[in-house]
Amino acid sequence: MGGCFMVDDTSRRLTVDYRRPYMLAEMAEKGVAVVWPTGGMGILGAAYCRSGGSSYREQRATAGYVLRAAPWLKVAVAAQYLHIGTSDAYYEPMQWLAATAAVQATVGGRVSFALLGGTRPWDSSRPWRAHLQMAYRLVTQVLTVVEAEAEDRIRLRLGMEYHYNGVLFFRAGMATNPLTATFGVGVRYRMLSIDIGAETHRMLGITPQTSLTLWL
Question: What is the pTM of this model?
Answer without folding.
Answer: 0.85
